[in-house]
Amino acid sequence: MLTISQLASYAGVTVRAVRHYHATGLLPEPERDRSGYRRYDAAAVVELIRIRTLAGAGVPLSRVRELLTADEAEFAAAVEDVDRRLRAEIRELQRHRRRIAGLAAGDSLALPPEAVAYLGRLRSIGVPEPMVEAERDAWILVAAQLPEQMPFYMRMKEQQLGDPGVRDLYRDLAEVIGWSADDPRLPAVADRLAALFDAVPAKDWAQNALPADLAALLDAVFLDSVPCATRLLELLEERGWVGWTNMRPLRRS
Question: Does the predicted TM-score (pTM) go above 0.90?
Fold first, then answer.
């Protein structure tokens, strides 16, 4: 006869595991002997090994009892069901692994591949990192609300970057965002922006617009973080343009 420690050793489990199997009813708990100890026979070792084998194969403890008492056909069906569940879990884990691997680049967190590529393009043309990070954070908000629209928006942004004037403006805006509201260079920046906006076909402004609540959120970030933002928007309005995230031409009579 064996003590609980010897039983655990024979079966290759811990004493704690044996007690857990007792508590869940998987392994019958023998009566205590005259000395107050529980003693186990060879049958208990065999049963514990079977429990350990099933649990180690990924069978939930809630189903172990079912398999221990199943006939051959029932056992085969139950094992197939457990195997199907394990395969699904493996696929889910593999998906998580691919996602984790993709996060190594940093920008991939909460952004689709086309947005990551666009941010890389900004860096490649010399846009300073603070400006790139501001763009990244804005597109994270957009991607969370309009994931299906991201490919369209990124194609639009890539087309814009094909214009040398736009590329130069991006690089310059990284400096502009640190200017004060009374900086004498702001009117010239507003002139450059208005000229770029004037070159965009009128139909494109409505097509490219974001939902009003999302645009308001992004505008608030711009106004709160850029000292000259309010003044720059005033200058743009004087030149016939209103908004920021959803820039649009003023209606002229």
Answer: no
